[in-house]
Amino acid sequence: MTKTNPGRFFEDYRMGQVIRHAVPRTVSGGERALYHALYPARHALASSDEFARACGLKAAPLDDLIAFHVVFGKTVPDISLNAVANLGYAEGRWLRPVWPGDTIRSESEVIGLKQNSNGKTGVVWVRTRGLNQSGEAVMEYVRWVMVRKRDPEAPAPETVVPKLAEVVDAAGLVIPEGLNFSKYDFELAGESHRWGDYAIGERIDHVDGVTIEEAEHMLATRLWQNTAKVHFDATNREDGKRLIYGGHVISMARALSFNGLANAQMVAALNAGAHANPCFSGDTVRAWSEVLDKAETAAPGVGAIRLRLVATKGDSGAFVLKGEDGKYAPEVLLDLDCWALMPV
Amino acid sequence: MTKTNPGRFFEDYRMGQVIRHAVPRTVSGGERALYHALYPARHALASSDEFARACGLKAAPLDDLIAFHVVFGKTVPDISLNAVANLGYAEGRWLRPVWPGDTIRSESEVIGLKQNSNGKTGVVWVRTRGLNQSGEAVMEYVRWVMVRKRDPEAPAPETVVPKLAEVVDAAGLVIPEGLNFSKYDFELAGESHRWGDYAIGERIDHVDGVTIEEAEHMLATRLWQNTAKVHFDATNREDGKRLIYGGHVISMARALSFNGLANAQMVAALNAGAHANPCFSGDTVRAWSEVLDKAETAAPGVGAIRLRLVATKGDSGAFVLKGEDGKYAPEVLLDLDCWALMPV
Amino acid sequence: MTKTNPGRFFEDYRMGQVIRHAVPRTVSGGERALYHALYPARHALASSDEFARACGLKAAPLDDLIAFHVVFGKTVPDISLNAVANLGYAEGRWLRPVWPGDTIRSESEVIGLKQNSNGKTGVVWVRTRGLNQSGEAVMEYVRWVMVRKRDPEAPAPETVVPKLAEVVDAAGLVIPEGLNFSKYDFELAGESHRWGDYAIGERIDHVDGVTIEEAEHMLATRLWQNTAKVHFDATNREDGKRLIYGGHVISMARALSFNGLANAQMVAALNAGAHANPCFSGDTVRAWSEVLDKAETAAPGVGAIRLRLVATKGDSGAFVLKGEDGKYAPEVLLDLDCWALMPV
């Protein structure tokens, strides 16, 4: 009897099942320092206690994507170890900042199941929540993945496809308690453009590029205790390449977007996301954004901006997304739809 | 007169000599974060303050191997700078957890000397102790190395070969004060198998592999302030390769062993260890374990399990160790014999 | 209208202008741990709280070069984004230690301007100050860079070349409050040679070498939030090489100098510095030092030593600096002139 974790197969999931994911994690200034070393992250609110205090918070929270990666990483052994594909995200919301010293764990509820017509795989939808040491939710999101069946003969479950919001409603965004941008220091933030300066439909070329190294994406992916072997074992794929964790590209694109969106200080919601093409070591990642929507919030001086954030290994200034066939262009790595918070 | 440290040569060691190693080191959450980035480390006790508190500790200690590496690193300039070979370990015991904020230093006592028959080298045995800021021992181990003589004509010292225990007696294992596994949360730990589920003689293939990069092993080795040039200087060896610090392979194997031994939460003793073959960048490291022994302890719910932990750059599922000639197979990197603590 | 930062061009600077640089940064034990992973840094005062307390400080300060890099990194988007060359440093002084938990920001005053005769570029001199959360200066230095003009037709400003001290006067060195080397533990520091053992004119070959990897210099450079694209984007230069941040070479050389100058615990002043030749991944960096001067200080047991610290990708024992033509030899990477503090 093997003692290693074979991961769950499609027939192991049941509607309504709640999986408590293993290995809670206490985070510290160490994770923040590493995040700054791994990504060109410069958003002032997550970089400086003083800046955060001037914005009404008790200290600088950890970057919102650190929270996402820690929560996500814990789900990998239970959700995506036998995944063929990571199909999408929806209804992601950050619910509470994560502070140095917090201990984070994750749990997921199975909210949808659909066997594929080939009978060999199926799609599983889970709603994942990250919880801190007080049991308070720090974030939640829905993810769906295509998972292999262990036994192709196993009977198909009843098909349940959850009804998911295409976009998180702006009214449902959770603003961190106390956040107040009314005395915001644009000079220290590094960017003079505010919420009112961005127009729906506007596109921003974030200009800079980062060429990815094997050591860096492995350090990042391990940091989140995501140990899916495709990211680490060069003998795993026939081509000898290590597939880069999609979240590494998300963080790289978000960090690059500082140059043009430095005031989009916090990510408040993840409306949708597609890892359009795989990313490998040696690729030079660039990013561009499109303003999809804007909304007011109840917090003083805080506006919400809905952004499409695209990572590409091509020319970010060409704003390439999909071809005439409606498919992602081969150089597009990531297409993310999110809400961010910005001073009005 | 040169001011750089030439290292000690064989004739510089005297029986009973105590060497206070230089550069004490204060550790923090930063070392923990880096450890998680460098290795796929997921043992819950060293990852989560909450999990550690539920096990009777005041907080999550730093990984036991962080303690080992910090203590070991300090000895390098005095013990192994002119070493030809790292021959073995014995009687290693962890005596007290290392917490973030602790300051660690090391000292070694020379407990054995034996000149080799070629007259050019000799073997030095030292017992090394790591001490915290209160002067309390956090770990100790015996190591022996083959060291060059500066002057082949220097007289040989009296031969003293210390009598070392082949295995640390289970009764001599030091259980951290307060450790209590009676309310252990197996779900959060990530593994349902407990002490009683492991049988002596059982072998576990840890399945996963990690392909090593130069940047990663250098970051790790420097983190422990181990600056032996063979690890960093590509011009040092004729083949242009950098030899990977043996401790890097130990930590990689230990972290990989989570998959199958997630509940072996703490390493309590190092009975023996051999760096069977050198490891280089590009090697894909895998691991397998064999249960060598089991013992009860006086701490509530805590059992001890004696494990052989083998790192290999071959197929871990083949459980290869030695050939018919009694020598390590060429793909074997590490053969470690240790006691770990596990919920019964 | 572009929203990305194009950087300042020569005609954007005005004499007396004060630029508050963006993105304040709170530092922690995480930055210290990463510094130890990135460089073979072993100076005991910045490594151990206990050692630092025995030297009169409240705890171990962050390495003086961490302070420099954080302060410098913030200036890049405003000062050197369009720089053709980093021409020099002068009048650098460390004014107050940086402790874990401090929040650092930077500001620069334009103190000199000189358009080049080609009309396409000009030289800008700035005096940069790093400030902590209490507004206290932690360091200051003058740097001058050659910057492109946006519009070659823009009128030349009045030429002002600031008069800069060739060397910081020893009387002007700022000794951290409380620093006292009268009970200095040479054994724990790792070196028996004290201030009195170094002679003016003496040269020290630091012996060790480190071969540089892309992942490492990028991690380091990002850690300081220095995002100049030449360091990260392999498509930026025609030769496909990423230029290594000069500060990475400074820290590598300083860390290597431990072996021979382990007691030069703190850097107190930066008199001058030249990045003699570019450094690329694959280069093996070595270092040598020359004692340029010595001075007493008012602090108990504390002496000052003025050092030339040279980084080379050649043989450090050859002490190569310049050729007969007065130009730096091609293997020389860095020529730094600084004051350090040492036990007398």
TrEMBL record, chains A, B, C:
List GO molecular-function terms, semicolon-separated. Answer: lyase activity
Q: What InterPro entries does its record include?
A: HotDog_dom_sf, MC_hydratase, MCH/BMMD, Thiol_ester_hydratase_Rv0216
> Known Gene3D superfamilies for this protein?
Hotdog Thioesterase
Record-given protein name: MaoC family dehydratase
